[in-house]
Specification:
Blueprint (H helix, E strand, L loop, with lengths): L13 H7 L6 E5 L4 H10 L4 E5 L16 H13 L6 E11 L13 H4 L10 H12 L9 E12 L2 E14 L15 E3 L4 E2 L5 H7 L1 H17 L11 H8 L6
Parallel strand pairs: 1-2, 1-3
Antiparallel strand pairs: 3-4, 4-5, 5-6, 6-7
Length: 255
């Protein structure tokens, strides 16, 4: 593609815009996820000169094991794995979840499989999110208000042809409610309360959710890192190593 686009909205970031407008083409990231909520958030947060699309044929690729002990480890593993199935494409993968202090950091990297791991009963009509949410409430049943702190974490990794190009992460602190609130969002969002806003993640509009969320913070860091290299030579992004990117912009892979 060869069009420069000016965007504003949930994904608008003046720093990214300043970097991106020095280039001439759009960068396409193919995200390895079948989660419609994640895909929606990533597309909305992409902003100027970045296009995020679903990885073609993802459903036909056997999913890799997510057995790393950290979010970054899983994100790196998934990005590397899927990039070998899509030669020449820049692949974006994520791993994210909820850590609850009263549960010693659980569900953590097992957030999406929390109820399954805990053998929590699956009632008729329950979605995976419903079951995980109910399992979390059960685990915190005897934990009083004031002791229900936790945080969302997200790690993102980008790879091309089996090589990691960049990694970034983000987090947001909050509290776990005793009952869900809100209809937007997904996962544990209806229970994740932001004291500063007096709302759960599910009660936020799209722009506010992206500004505050772990996923939005991680993506903005990652895009800034990638665009510093991309604006120099769009055709060579897949040949740029992560250390070279970090020397150019500083290591922004932390929270």
């Amino acid at each position: 593609m060869s069009k420069n686009r000016s965007r504003s909205g949930p994904g608008h970031n003046p720093q990214l815009e300043a970097i991106a407008t020095r280039g001439q083409t759009e960068m396409i990231l193919y995200i390895a996820t079948t989660n419609p909520g994640k895909l929606r958030d990533f597309k909305a947060a992409a902003g100027l000169q970045i296009v995020i699309e679903s990885l073609p044929g993802l459903s036909s690729i056997p999913a890799p094991a997510e057995d790393e002990p950290t979010f970054k480890g899983n994100a790196r593993h998934k990005a590397t794995f899927y990039s070998t199935h899509a030669p020449g494409k820049i692949i974006l993968a994520d791993d994210s979840g909820l850590e609850v202090d009263a549960l010693d950091g659980s569900p953590g990297v097992r957030s999406a499989r929390y109820a399954e791991d805990s053998h929590y009963p699956a009632l008729p009509g329950m979605t995976v999110d419903d079951r995980n949410t109910a399992c979390l409430l059960s685990a915190l049943d005897e934990t009083p208000e004031g002791y229900r702190q936790g945080r969302y974490r997200c790690a993102l990794a980008v790879a091309c042809d089996g090589k990691i190009l960049a990694v970034a992460s983000g987090s947001v602190d909050g509290e776990i409610l005793t009952a869900p609130r809100g209809v937007d969002g997904f996962g544990y969002d209806p229970l994740f309360f932001l004291p500063q806003l007096q709302k759960t993640m599910s009660e936020l509009d799209a722009a506010t959710r992206l500004a505050w969320s772990h996923r939005g913070k991680a993506l903005q860091k990652l895009l800034a890192l990638l665009l510093l290299s991309y604006r120099k030579d769009p055709d060579q992004v897949c040949t740029v190593s992560q250390p070279r990117l970090f020397r150019a912009s500083g290591d922004i892979s932390g929270d």
